[in-house]
Amino acid sequence: AQSVAQPEDQVNVAEGNPLTVKCTYSVSGNPYLFWYVQYPNRGLQFLLKYITGDNLVKGSYGFEAEFNKSQTSFHLKKPSALVSDSALYFCAVRSYYGGATNKLIFGTGTLLAVQP
Amino acid sequence: ETGVTQTPRHLVMGMTNKKSLKCEQHLGHNAMYWYKQSAKKPLELMFVYNFKEQTENNSVPSRFSPECPNSSHLFLHLHTLQPEDSALYLCASSQDSRGASYNEQFFGPGTRLTVL
């Protein structure tokens, strides 16, 4: 079965420090991986995606993610956290069944809290 | 904003009421989605439409009835709901949803539904 795991319900980091939000996945075939962010009372916003190519993907707001095939991980990172980065972060993997609907499978989300 | 709007933003209804949620996308996309977001649970895909045709019904109870009159509009008709249906209902769109696609999805702000 295809799945995504975000092992941490919450990540706390001080402003200015690097942050990492973890994601591991399980899929058949090549994974297509996504990160989304959700601010309070808002919908999900696309941050970045990995389809193929360079394992380090750069996205919006200074975020990046590293695809690691051997560890089946796609952790989200940022070198220096901002208080405004505080939000709920979702990892997702695309489920593809050859000709069928392209569906995203989401993790349970990780709440990032950045303290000033 | 993401170009996907949802109305109403908040809805309170009794179990015997009939109401509808509306979603509109201004991005020229061909695929639209309904998701249910409940606390501490992964996003649940409910329905997918591609070029106005329903391509996915993720075992959703019949008290939820989608309608997609064109590629820009998506409705979710609600009737005889249960309290456990209370959640945030998110609409999303993407370029298309067919198997080979890996387009990211763009989300609306959601409708917060409370069933009394």
Notable characteristics:
heterodimer, A: 116 residues, mainly beta, six-stranded mixed β-sheet, four-stranded antiparallel β-sheet, 0% helix, 52% strand, globular, B: 116 residues, seven-stranded mixed β-sheet, 55% strand
SSE diagram, text form:
The complex is a heterodimer of chains A (116) and B (116).
Chain A: E1 3-5, E2 10-14, E3 19-21, E4 24-26, E5 33-38, E6 44-50, E7 56-58, E8 64-68, E9 73-78, E10 87-95, E11 103-106, E12 110-115
Parallel strand pairs in A: 2-12
Antiparallel strand pairs in A: 1-4, 3-9, 5-6, 5-10, 7-8, 8-9, 10-11, 10-12
Chain B: E1 4-7, E2 10-13, E3 18-25, E4 31-37, E5 44-50, E6 53-57, E7 64-70, E8 73-79, E9 87-94, E10 106-107, E11 111-115
Parallel strand pairs in B: 2-11
Antiparallel strand pairs in B: 1-3, 3-8, 4-5, 4-9, 5-6, 7-8, 9-10, 9-11
